[in-house]
Structure formats: structure tokens, C-alpha cells
Amino acid sequence: MKVLFDHALPFQLAHGGVQTQILRTKAALGAAGVEVGFLRWWDEAQEGDLIHLFSPVRGEYLDLARQKGRPVVLTSILSETCNRPRWRLRLQGLVVRTILRVPVGRGIQGQLNWQAYARCTHHVVGLAAEQAVLQIVYGVPARRISVVPLGLDEAFLAAGPGRRDAPHLVCVSTITPIKGVVELAQLAREARVPVLFVGKPYDANSAYARAFRELVDGRHVMHHPHVGTAGEMIALLHAARGFVLRSRFENWCLAASEAAACGLPLLLPDLPWSRERFGDAAWYWTGHRRRDVERLRRFHRECPSLRAPAAARCGWTGVAERLRAVYTAVLASSR
How far apart are CA 5 and CA 23, in angstroms? Predict the structure, then answer.
């Protein structure tokens, strides 16, 4: 079995969780005996049994793959959509179905990636909330969807709790508006709670990155821009008092899972992804600024007596085994 990975956005333009997911998945599949390569768009002689996409594509891509006898598995990162309420998903589904049924504007419809959801061979998502998006919005039947969680490196699975003797909380995140780091830094200064931010921006010269740097004071807002190894990240997590995140949406926050594996209590946005992953075992923001200032103070104060959520954890080896089963089933049904 040879699987070809394809993704629309180069890592040099946007680092982060998707890059980690793709690279870790590829390495784990290789260790499990599945031959995996990146699809070389310029190489017409490249061979492969199956294409695994990590971003939607136009319908033409899928039609050509079908003609070549190559089934396509699609992993969509439905971060924003899967955190919408069900009534909005149903309304969105009605809009999508209406547009795709209108007998005019076929040229416009051909540009829409929406068709990929209905026309790819199989879907792989990380959350049941993402599966609900595919079913409610795009009408994908459940039999064509597999929920496969993201994995943790073995180093994090084996890490266990640390000393947690530093006075600060830690936030591991790209410095970008979606992650809400400027807003969290403002809360930290207002609450007088020390928070160490670990991560870097996509563009160090962007207005958002500059706004964040202006908030770094070394007391309540600290910044560690780069982590080179899992061991270094584990050391930072083991020292921190707790983990905090204020992102607008996520689909699966690896950083939160890594923090929990290192024994940290979590303060997270109250959204479908976080509730599905951690339930009532995590702390959640209220969504009201004044109350959230007090929530941050209280979380920081009570962290020494709090435990990490006991959420189910899967290594990348387990992810590879489940994906290999998906690939095998897809190839068998496509013959």
C-alpha cells in the first residue's frame, strides 16, 4: 500500500498544528509499514494507491483521481465550523444545498471546495463535532466518515506530572488573532496573573504581533518564542502552575492535550471541541471580560490543588493503526 499526502498550504507560509499533524502522521504510518510520500504535482509518473488530502480541493481534482482509480481520503480542519451551534449548522446546510441545486452559475459552483465533501471517497476527522458538520452541512453519510483522534508523542505520554513550582501559567499558541493571545495578555495584566506565552507569529512584523510584543512586560506577560524539542516543551509544562488558552475556536488543540499529559489543569474556551475533549474536568472562561478577570485570578490561585483532566490519550502509533485500517477498507471498497 502506498499513500500520497497532499496539502494546499506550504508549511513555510503557515506553521502550527496542521503541520505537526501531517508530519507526525506520516512518520507513524511509515513506522507501521505503510509507504507514504508527498504528492509531487510535477511528477506524472509518481505511483500511489490512495491520496490522503489534508485540505479540500475543487471537484475537478476528485474527478481526475477517480478516473485514475485512486480513491481520495479527506481530512478537513473544521475548526470554526465545528464550534457553531447546531441551529447554525442546519441553516448553513440549507444554504449549501440551495446553492448547489441552483441550475445557474455552474462556473461559480465549480470553484467551490464544498463539492469535495460530497465527492471524496472517505473522510477522516478528529472530533465527533467535525463529523456532525459533515453530516448536517454537507450531507455526508456516517458510513463515509471515520473519527480518528490526533496523537501525542511518546515523550508526552510518558511525561507524567511535573513539579509545577513556577509562579506562572503557560499558554502554548501561535501568536495570531484566532488564538486570542493579545486578549489573554491583556487579561493577565489586568488580573496581575503571570502567564508565559510559548509560540511565535506567522509574521513577526504584523500589527497583531507588534501589539503582543508591546504587552510583554516580564512580570505578567512573558514570552518564550521558540521550542526546539519535545523535551524542552515538557520542561516548560512541568514547571508551570497551569495551562490557559483563549482561542476563538479549535478543532483539536494538541497543546492542551500535551499540557494535560504533563499534569496541568486547564482553563479553556467553553466550546464544543473543549467540552468533547475534556468535559467537566477542565475550567472554562465565562465569556464576560470582568468575570473572566476574576476567573483567571481564581484559576491561578487554586491551580496547586487542581488535577489535570483525565482525558483519553492516544499515541501516534495508535493513530497510524487506525488510519491503516481506514485505508485498507477504502481500497477494498473501491475495487
Answer: 10
Indicate the residue type of 328. Answer: T
Q: Which amino acid type is present at position 310?
A: A
Residues 6+ apart with CB under 8 A from 20: 254
Q: Secondary structure of the chain in the HEC alphabet?
A: CEEEEECCCCCCCCCCHHHHHHHHHHHHHHHCCCEEEECCCCCCCCCCCEEEECCCCCHHHHHHHHHCCCCEEECCCCCCHHHCCHHHHHHHHHHHHHHHHCCCCHHHHHHCCHHHHHHCCEEEECCHHHHHHHHHCCCCCHHHEEECCCCECHHHHCCCCCCCCCCCEEEECCECHHHCHHHHHHHHHHHCCCEEEECCECCCCCHHHHHHHHHCCCCCEEEECCCCCHHHHHHHHHHCCCEECCCCCCCCCHHHHHHHHCCCCEEECCCHHHHHHHHHHCEECCCCHHHHHHHHHHHHHHHHHCCCCCCCCCEHHHHHHHHHHHHHHHHHHHC
Q: Find out whether 21 and 149 touch, Cβ atoms under 8 Å.
A: no
Q: How many residues does the chain have?
A: 335
Q: How far apart (Å, rounded) are the C-alpha atoms in residues 265 and 306?
A: 6
CA terminus-to-terminus distance, the chain: 14
| Least confident segment among 23-32, 86-95, 102-111 | 102-111
Task: For residue 15, report the phi and psi dihedrals to the nearest 5 degrees.
Answer: -85, 180
What is the band of 334 on the pLDDT scale with cuts at 50, 70, 90? Answer: confident
pLDDT tens digits for range 298-325: 999 999 999 999 877 889 999 999 999 9
d(CA 105, CA 124): 30
Using CA atoms, how far apart are residues 280 and 296, in angstroms rounded to an integer? 17
